[in-house]
Write a structure and sequence with these properties.
With 260 residues, the chain is of the alpha+beta class. The chain is built from nine helices and nine strands.
Length: 260
């Protein structure tokens, strides 16, 4: 099981992946800011600037009324908010386009003209809308599937994900007539992962009739996958503790097999 750097602290927000949290004072401020970004209804433009940067502030003051109905504006002072800004910027001004705590496009280093920032905001909103449409389509597929769903959330940087992938592919192929086997890349579909409250991979979620039945993080054996599919397909629902024990038994078998 792997959580991307500091995802345990910020999960499922990946805004601060690149930050060296061990060197940051005021960690509570950082966590509070991360949580705030996740809960925002609209996409957010986070600007890090110096108090003396009147030009950037004037541009933001001009653009905010134009975009305030579709984008939230958050301005951080590079000195006063240093516990946060040290995790975000090496220079000022910088502009961060965030949706549900997730960067939509790479950080932009300024200064920018009014027209440049306006164009970036338009592009940013278009990308946000595209992600919404894609995420809604995936969630609709999960909720409305006529078959039970086995959702596998993986990531290219996750070594355990790569090790369990052949087992998952085997199960998907074996049960293609019985379940909807869906594989999602965590980084490509972080909005969906956030909606499903996934912060660690590999993650497996069993769903039926649009409802989650069970989930676990980490690998397990092919035989345990078969048992779980059989249980959920027949509406037999053991307790959470029994399911966890079953998965852990399969995990130990998988470890022993890999070590041989």
């Amino acid at each position: 099981m792997i959580k991307k750097q500091y995802a345990l602290i910020f999960a499922p927000c990946l805004l601060f992946i690149q930050a060296h949290a061990a060197d940051i004072q005021g960690l509570e401020e950082l966590i509070a800011f991360s949580t705030n970004m996740q809960k925002r209804q609209f996409p957010v433009l986070v600007t890090v600037s110096d108090a003396a940067d009147s030009e950037t502030q004037a541009i933001l003051d001009t653009l905010q009324p134009e975009f305030s109905s579709i984008i939230d504006f958050v301005n951080l002072d590079n000195v006063a908010d240093s516990a946060i800004t040290r995790a975000l910027a090496r220079t000022t001004p910088t502009f961060h386009f965030i949706k549900k705590g997730i960067p939509l496009i790479p950080m932009i280093e300024g200064p920018l003209t009014e027209d440049e920032l306006r164009n970036f905001l338009i592009t940013y909103k278009q990308e946000s809308d595209r992600i919404d449409q894609q995420s809604n389509a995936i969630l609709e597929q999960l909720m409305e599937s006529p078959k039970p769903v086995l959702l596998y959330i993986t990531a290219s940087w996750c070594s355990p994900c790569q090790k369990i992938k052949p087992v998952v592919q085997e199960i998907f192929a074996e049960y293609e007539d019985d379940i909807a086997g869906i594989m999602l890349d965590y980084d490509a579909q972080r909005t969906v992962a956030s909606t499903l409250d996934v912060s660690a991979v590999p993650c497996f979620i069993f769903m039926k009739d649009g409802k989650e039945l069970y989930r676990f993080v980490g690998g397990t054996s092919a035989e345990v996958f078969r048992t779980l599919i059989s249980l959920f397909s027949s509406d037999i629902l053991p307790s959470q503790e029994e399911l966890d024990t079953l998965v852990e038994t399969g995990r130990q078998e998988l470890i022993e097999t890999n070590n041989q």
